[in-house]
Amino acid sequence: MSRWTRYRKKKDALNAGDESGASDLSDTEPSSDSDSDRQQPAPKRGRKESSSSSSESDDSSQPSGSGDENADSQDEEEEMHHGEDDEGEQNGGQIVDEVLVGGDPEDNLEVPNNEGNDGEAGQQGPQQDEDDDSSVDENDNDIVSDSSSDEETSSESENESDDESDESDESDVDYEGGNAPNGDIPLYANARISVMESIIMILTLSITFSLSGACLAKILELIELHCPPVNNCITSLYKFKQLFIDIGRNCLVLHYYCERCFKKLQNKNSICNQCNNETKVAFFVEVPILNQLQRMFLRPGFLEMLMFRFNGQKKDANNFEDIYDGRLYKENMGEEFQPGHYNISFMFYTDGISIFKSSKFSVWPVFLVINELNYKTRTRKENILLAALWFGKSKPKPNLFLKPLQKTCRKFRDGVQLNVPNGPPVSVKATMICMTCDLQAKGIFLRQKLSNGYYGCSKCLSRGVRIPVGRSSVHVHQHIRPQQMQLRKNNEVRDLALNKQFGYKGISLLYFLMPSMVAGTCIDIMHQIFSGLSKLLVKLWFDPSFSGQPYSCTRMIDIVNERLSSIVPPSFVERFTRTLTDRKLWKSKEYKLWFFYYSIVVMQGILEDVYLDHHIKLVSALSLLSLDSISPDQIDSAEELLLEYIKDFQNLYGLRYMGMNVHMLAHLCDMVRDLGPLWVYSCFFLEALNGQIIKLVHSPFQPALQICSSASLFLSLNTKIDSLLADSVARNFCVKLRSGAPDKKIVEHINDKLKIVGRPAFQYNVSAATIQVLMNRFNVANSHFQSFFRLRKSGIVYTSEKQQATKRCSMYASFVKDGVPFLGKIRDYVRVSTCVCTKICLCMPARYFCVVQIYERIPWRIHDVQNVRISYLTAVAPTDNVLAFTCDELQGPCFYMKTNNFEYLATRVNRLEYE
């Protein structure tokens, strides 16, 4: 039956008054509207469509996020314009807000009486209606299942509008030769792969290349045609999805609300008692985190990874090296949580993602990061919890949106039992200790004035002032001495929020979810510094509109572009260096590279000394707060530099640019004392997830359910790949596909960290001078010498001078010999064995060495700036000293830069983040 025929029959049924025949009319109606922001046809009164996540809203502001690694963060100038939060008048800190008819549903919140922020019900604040939108009854949740209506759980992909229906396939998945739920049978007789291996490879291909459901269905058919006639191939998209039913859309919970007044509704057919016939039903999605955690705890090795905070070795017992060293974690994860080794804490993150360029439709995912895993493990997407999804043209109502999460957190505070691979179930407690996001999302979820409004700072009571700029005005914060700064206190938040004072619009559920909403609200370096303040400085220095200012470098932009073009980054850097001509296209990571590595070197002789010295102070302070291990003295030094920077900024650039990003610098050091180094709560890896979520949408038809269908599969893909047998053809295929680039062939495994890679692998022509360098330090006489060109250590490829690529410069590195650090250029790699072969061989045992030309540090510009401490970036000069190191003594890669005949080397600011 054609799609058009099905549509006509359902329309006739609707005209005849047959509700069941018309229930999925909107899912099959042909469309002549190709606009990306088209929504579903308006349903008949009394039948509200749940598949349309949001209708037109009066809120005309754009969502705060963008789809790539970074949100569309505004620069400082844009951030201060068009304030929407300055409508109240100030009277001794009291904000006199306009009282809306009917009140704000977000204020109808059950307010716990106790001050422990445990989320338990106690004395109530403002009276709430029977249909209070912030109170969600667990019995009202609709569990999405295959038997649900087509609006919620159509087993077809939303992109398969032109495919035939799969209703005939809604039976148990049977295979040739018997039913195999685990897919352990061969794909066909004598096949190299099993059914499940085939399915996981197809899933990896689909997610990697963002294939639509229609395309995936045809690929399944195509694969079956390439197999023998008798096979066990999955040819139906429905059956394909059934194999992942434990992590698919069937695990989701839909929460309905009225889109006009944001009152909570019982189900998709409910009528709002406030809007009546004008009710517009929308929904948001809860993804139960208990189920996700249970799958994680059943993973082999996951329990051992949770022991990191107990087993990890600190470089210095008194230093700040992760969130566990911060005051907030120590105070709130102590007596109650530490006795249980499996207890965990979460970092909360959310942001708005624009799906279509021509529509205000956006998605707001809520991610939870498990702090107890080591940094590199916790930032992998398979270890990140997706807790909820908000869809639509309106921004989230935080108390409505977070109510299901609050109920879950209550259960975790008492402890839940989770099964483990070996042994009895373990008791797990969990709490949310902090949140990180951009300024706009922060204001929304804290229920506080935005950064362009009075009292918009989440850390202090700085009121700010509004100054006129042309026909508009900007909101700025004047420099305040630390002694005069009034910090917000968590024990005062409740009363201030209920009375809507000092910037609070009402009390937020985050106050009850976190031990301290004030200390737990992070300042994200990605949004504040790289795509905020650094972006503003680049604009002030190089935008032609500022050519008359003393800090303008517009006339020197060609020289700066030439210097930037000459920089060839090492292999671990994801992005090539782009010139300032393309600065409007720069991503946050490019601004990070500019800020930490390029700006000081490139701007020497370009920016006047007073402005360059001022910038060097900022770079020095931020680099200290971003180290792997930060001493209390280094925090104090950074604080002194930042306070000087803020004070001088107003004098150098004017009050007009003293926006929130400059003001928040005063709170960064307290953030590190409370929650650890700045990289702990940086949004880079979370923004990357946002960008990948966008790729799950392939058409404007029901984007909400498209994301719901694929998000869980996407987040758990690596876990599925890890379940495959090691070194199997299926696993190798998936790993190569997910790496994003062709993997260099491994020629020889030296150890777990070191591998010789690439072709050609070895040469037999090691020079006598190189052998002499080796013999000066090591006993390698009468040995067999072979040179090789590429070494991979801990995932980073280093090349020798002989095989330097033109697009990447990976031959400069740092070394440590007997505790003494060295910088240098790798001239050659040498493999030394004791065999007597006369040709290239892989005889064992063998030893592996680097022959390095040493570069010495020399005085340069930063040494003239008082109190500046930049150890990772230095001017260097090549020497005639050539030393031999073992490959294990290689520490890390270096950036190499050369300007005006001066050379510079920069190690990574920290070894945890990838650039």
Helix content: 25-40%
Task: Give the structural class.
Answer: alpha+beta
For the record, the CATH architecture of the domain at 744-906 stands as Roll
How can the largest sheet be summarized? 9 strands, mixed
Low-confidence stretches: 14-103, 113-182
Distance between the termini: 53 Å
Choose one word for the global shape. Answer: globular
What does this structure look like?
With 915 residues, the protein is of the alpha+beta class. Among the domains are: 525-681, no CATH class; 744-906, Roll (SH3 type barrels), CATH 2.30.30. It is 30% helix and 17% strand. The protein contains 29 helices and 28 strands. The strands form six sheets. Strands 3, 4, 5, 6, 7, 8, 9, 10 and 13 form a nine-stranded mixed beta sheet that branches. Strand 1 and strand 2 form a beta hairpin. Helix 6 runs parallel beside helix 28 (729-739) and helix 20 (588-603) packs across helix 21 (609-624). The longest helix has 22 residues, at 632-653. The two termini are 53 Å apart. Residues 51-68 have a biased composition (Low complexity). Residues 69-78, 128-175 have a biased composition (Acidic residues). Residues 1-11 have a biased composition (Basic residues).
Question: Can you describe this structure in just a few lines?
Answer:
This protein has 915 residues and is an alpha+beta fold. Among the domains are: 525-681, no CATH class; 744-906, SH3 type barrels, CATH 2.30.30. Helix content is 30%, strand content 17%.
